[in-house]
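[Discussion] Sanity-checking designs against the backbone

I'm trying to build intuition for which residues belong where. Below is a structure token string of 147 positions. I'd appreciate it if someone posts a full sequence so I can compare it with mine line by line.
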């Protein structure tokens, strides 16, 4: 155990999402951003004699889920972008996720809403999970939290 354990601070307000240059806010409680790579960066193939080859994938696309509260004004922006895309095909917009707590930065020049989020109404505020697909990522850095 280190003599002086390090204590860091994480603040979800310092996680900034923009879509089409517009800041997104009103994050839901719990996991409000989920980024999943479309496929592994390397595939492995083992021959009959045990020789191993790995093949690099050039697929650097992602699925992104952003979960907002029902009351978030950002739902209107995302709905408008989705509707514009359905009508005109002009809904591929830049998507960025920046964690000002540290060095995490994701940027896709092209991303689009894939479908309406599941929704419902209840006694209390519910969540809206927006799903995006992306083109190739331009910037990707998973950083930790600064002191």
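Best answer:
Here's mine. Compare freely.
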């Amino acid at each position: 155990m280190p003599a002086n354990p390090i204590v860091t601070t994480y603040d979800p307000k310092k996680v900034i999402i923009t879509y089409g240059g517009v800041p997104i806010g009103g994050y839901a409680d719990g996991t409000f951003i989920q980024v999943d790579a479309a496929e592994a960066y390397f595939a492995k193939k083992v021959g009959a004699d045990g020789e191993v080859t790995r093949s690099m994938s050039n697929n650097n696309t992602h699925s992104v889920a952003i979960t907002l509260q029902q009351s978030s004004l950002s739902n209107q922006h995302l709905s408008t972008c989705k509707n514009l895309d359905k009508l005109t095909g002009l809904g591929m917009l830049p998507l960025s996720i920046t964690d000002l707590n540290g060095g995490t930065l994701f940027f896709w020049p092209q991303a689009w809403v894939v479908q309406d989020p599941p929704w419902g109404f209840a006694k209390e505020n519910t969540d809206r999970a927006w799903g995006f697909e992306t083109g190739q990522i331009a910037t990707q850095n998973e950083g930790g939290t600064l002191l």
